[in-house]
Amino acid sequence: MVTDLHGYQKKAVLFGAVLSAALFSGCATKPAVSPGLYQPSRVQHAENYRHKAAYNRPYQVRGHTYYPMASAAGYREFGIASWYGSESGNTTSMGTRFRPQNLTAAHKTLPLPCKVRVTNLHNGRSVDVVVNDRGPFKKGRLIDLSKAAARQIGIRGMAKVKVEYIGNPTSDID
Question: pTM score, two decimals?
Fold first, then answer.
């Protein structure tokens, strides 16, 4: 009887070892790649950047690199909108003066300038704005609206919105 128990223990240990090996084999890290051969796609993307305007080239903020889109055609995204207004008179990424009374916005990667429709998903109200600045750089935020744009769609702090590209601006960007 003692020999049967001893054999059972051996089988249990062997089964546990095989099971552990099978489970942990799927958790292996990526194979090592020679630093000279590996190039992330965004590095290759940055090398092939063709935008002439500095505000549409890759840029860094707080150690994170952002890659503006070459085209916003078909762009549609849901996220959190906030508004800004205390920066009145400051220069936007495009070099124009920020005026909170204008219908403008800031986005991290949309090409500048472009026109988007921002819809407040809480009340269904929307506003068309010209994106002429970069931001917001706070985690979880998609777009910053000027005070006038936020007011027009009923945003007093932050709100969940839909942002859709609607074209290039036809009027003066301010």
Answer: 0.69
